[in-house]
């Protein structure tokens, strides 16, 4: 299980340091799809995209307006927000047509809408019958509807006792696969061997929780419990908590508080304000040195916050551009 953090600081640095006028077009996800569209034709392949209501229209309009062909089909699965996720009079003061039935992209399959299973501690069940994992989502509080996602790997069969099987005359081969599938097999000497006779306890699947922008992810608590890794934003340092919350964001100590609540083993901080720079990223010449702080400030605040919870063991990592984190078994 691996997670990649896309670049953003380096792109902004290039803009700030340019001596010419830039026309910046933010193409985002549709741009990624367009780049993927240059690969060999795979019309038997369907890419599924998951996100809040409005994603289908956003992707469709971007691809249609740019006349971007794709060499594969795609399908959008939209999470329908609860009415209470729209703060105040947002929908009245700033009405937006999130759903549109205009001309679909040639490679688009009709989108699907998913609603919450319950109103209290709502859960959006996204993938529940996959061979490898399940994916669930829940609401997190921000200025607009936002979601967090929990990826839970299915438990894996335990280790086979090879010595035992050799002792009853079963060599490595197809019968091992049957045993791992939970099927009984017959040894050459006629002995029936059941999986419980030769396979150890199941290996617990890994669990990762990834949050979007939020100042309060408490609705995620139940489905995120005992995550191996939690990705949580830390937009501003603790001394600027009031400003962070007023804009719908979090600080390092807030991220640690939720980590403790769900007993996460690893916390990965992300989504920093532009006032913070990774030690691995050069500071743009256009920014005065005194305007820039290191993300190490956020990292140290989070590490210190962990100490406020006796007995809580959680490693803290500050994400950076193009970083990859592997969740080991």
Properties at a glance:
11 helices, 25% helix, 16 strands, alpha/beta, 329 residues
How does this structure look, described?
With 329 residues, the protein is α/β, with parallel strands linked by helices. Helices cover 25% and strands 22% of the residues. The protein contains 11 helices and 16 strands. The protein has a 7-stranded mixed β-sheet, covered by helices on one side. It has a 3-stranded parallel β-sheet with strand order 2-3-4, with helices on one face. A hairpin with a 5-residue loop joins β8 (185-186) and β9. The radius of gyration is 24 Å and the shape is globular.
In short, what is this structure?
With 329 residues, the chain is an alpha/beta fold.
Q: In which order are the strands of the major sheet placed?
A: 5-6-7-10-11-12-15
**Low-pLDDT segments, ≥5 res:** 1-25
Shape: globular
Proportion of residues in helical segments: 10-25%
Provide the gyration radius in Å. Answer: 24 Å
Derived from helix and strand composition plus strand pairing, the structural class reads: alpha/beta
* Counted beta strands: 16
Ends distance = 9 Å
Task: Report mean pLDDT, rounded to a whole number.
Answer: 86
Oligomer: single chain
Largest sheet: 7 strands, mixed
Q: Helical segment tally?
A: 11
